[in-house]
Amino acid sequence: MKLIKYIFIILGLVLLIFLGKNLYYHYKEEKIIQQYIADMNIKRDDFNTTPEYFSAISDYLNSDFNTDVESWKHSDLLGRSFLRNSVLELLEIKEGVCGEGTRMMIRILHSLGYNASRLAFYDKEFGAAHALVSVLIGDSEIVVDTINFNKELHEIFRNNKINMKMINIIHYDDRFSEINKSKPSEFSKFFKEHYAIYSYESIPYVKFASKLGADKFIFNFSRPNKYISYLAESVYLIKAIVAFVLLILLLLLYYYLKRVSNRRESIQ
Fold first, then answer.
1. What is the pLDDT of residues 45-71, one digit of tens each?
2. I need a labelling partner for 169 at 20 to 30 A (CA). Which of 64, 73, 107, 160 fits?
3. What is the b/e burial string over 114-151, where b = at least 16 CB atoms within 10 angstroms of the residue's CB?
4. pTM beyond 0.85
5. Are 202 and 267 part of one and the same domain?
6. What pLDDT, on the 0 to 100 scale, is given for residue 171?
7. Does residue 145 sit in the same domain as residue 14?
8. Are residues 187 and 62 in the same domain?
9. Do 7 and 52 sit in the same domain of this protein?
10. Average pLDDT value for residue range 141-169
């Protein structure tokens, strides 16, 4: 039992160090995001509407990041890890496409006090085609485009205040096509031509299923809690929580083995 005890102590220390390291990086990341917001110098009062304000932040990200995949020096579009790069890493390499832009935008908006969540548009083969940001403002839920956007789609988002009610109508109300047959909106035409369905991606069900080898498509149409949305874009916080859970499980296993050992000794 002594050997097992030392093994558990070593494993516990490793997990504690891993936990502390990731909490530190998450704190550092928060500070750097706040500095990045200050450096952008984009003020809400300079815009007539909130969507215009968000578009200005999106434009800044697009100009600050290299979205030309062929010229990337630090990233690999096809070889990205499951959790993808953290915001800290993204701000160091300044390379990414819509997924990275969405992560940046969500963390920036959360730091500004907004409730933002990841949204994905899937194409007609149910492949993840584009990542965007859904922002909840009062009772309205608007959709914001980020970097590496399709220019036509981005212009539609800029010129029309796209909200989730519009997207829901396109997919789930059979009357929509009849009502809008004479004059469909730019957005509805573009969406129906390029995309098939949407899904909130804070909990990436499709990605999980794919990694497990399951040929299943699980789409989430319910907007996640803001804390889940925040956590999904916080790589270091995810790792810290995993380390904490493993630490608790390690302690429980140790005490279970200790009780079993004590019982055996008492019987003998």
1. 999 889 899 999 999 999 999 988 888
2. 107
3. bbbbbbbbbeeeeebbbbbbbbbeeeebbbbbbbbbee
4. yes
5. no
6. 62
7. no
8. yes
9. no
10. 84
70 and 91 belong to one structural domain: yes
* Residue 176, pLDDT score: 47
Q: Please give the average per-residue pLDDT across 143-172, as a whole number.
A: 81
Q: Range of 118's domain?
A: 42-233
Classify the phi-psi angles of 75: left when phi > 0, otherwise alpha if psi is within -120 to 50, otherwise beta.
Answer: beta
Question: CA-to-CA distance for 168 and 134, rounded, in angstroms?
Answer: 13
What's the mean pLDDT when you consider all of the chain?
86
Q: Are residues 173 and 218 in the same domain?
A: yes
Number of domains in the chain: 2
How do residues 59-106 score in pLDDT, each as one tens digit? 999 999 998 888 888 888 777 777 889 999 999 999 999 999 999 999
